[in-house]
Amino acid sequence: MNENEVEGVAIANLIAADEKTIVGWVYRWNTGALAIRWDMHGPQRVSRIYPDLSDADKAEIDFASLTQLPCRDD
Q: What superkingdom heads the lineage (predicted)?
């Protein structure tokens, strides 16, 4: 990464409630911050993160609220 630019790298997949579909990605920015990028359907319920993240990282992206979002088919 270039230290003069803000850049991010995908570090984990967000897995949908169906346990097989990737619905988004967790990115770590060179600033240290985490952010979520959703697929073209936008935010939806997440069942897990793969690979798993630390509890602190999950808290930063508010994983608990991601498990409560409506499913794509709701």
A: Bacteria
* Structure-token pair, residue 45: 């319920």
Q: Which candidate, 47, 50, 39, places its Cα nearest to that of 13?
A: 50
Taking the whole predicted model, whether its pTM rises above 0.85 is answered as yes
Return the biggest CA–CA distance within the chain.
43
Task: Return the domain boundaries, the chain.
Answer: 8-66
Can you give the pLDDT of all 74 residues of the chain as single tens digits? 566 788 999 999 999 999 999 999 999 999 999 999 999 999 999 999 999 999 999 999 999 999 999 987 65
18, 73, 26: which is closest to 49 by C-alpha? 26
